[in-house]
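[Discussion] Sanity-checking designs against the backbone

I'm trying to build intuition for which residues belong where. Below is a structure token string of 87 positions. I'd appreciate it if someone posts a full sequence so I can compare it with mine line by line.
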């Protein structure tokens, strides 16, 4: 699998089900972001080089990207513009 242009393929972390205090959290908590690990990146664009690389952990906008399932594994394809931060 290979991303093209300014696209990035990530695996999104599973949301935390329980707090440290033992409280169960609903799946759709009031977060405006999701955290994931970069699997592969495209080459970037001439005027916008790629700023992340394979293995980076990133924060992206919650509704960013397109979710796909390949070989029964879920991935999310996002644009570099959707990245909020590198952890």
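Best answer:
Here's mine. Compare freely.
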């Amino acid at each position: 699998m290979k991303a093209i242009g300014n696209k990035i393929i990530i695996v999104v972390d599973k949301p935390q089900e329980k707090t440290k205090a033992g409280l169960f959290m609903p799946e759709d908590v009031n977060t405006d972001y999701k955290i994931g690990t970069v699997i592969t990146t495209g080459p970037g664009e001439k005027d916008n080089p790629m700023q992340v690389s394979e293995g980076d952990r990133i924060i992206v906008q919650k509704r960013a990207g397109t979710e796909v399932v390949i070989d029964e594994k879920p991935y999310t394809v996002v644009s570099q513009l959707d990245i909020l931060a590198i952890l």
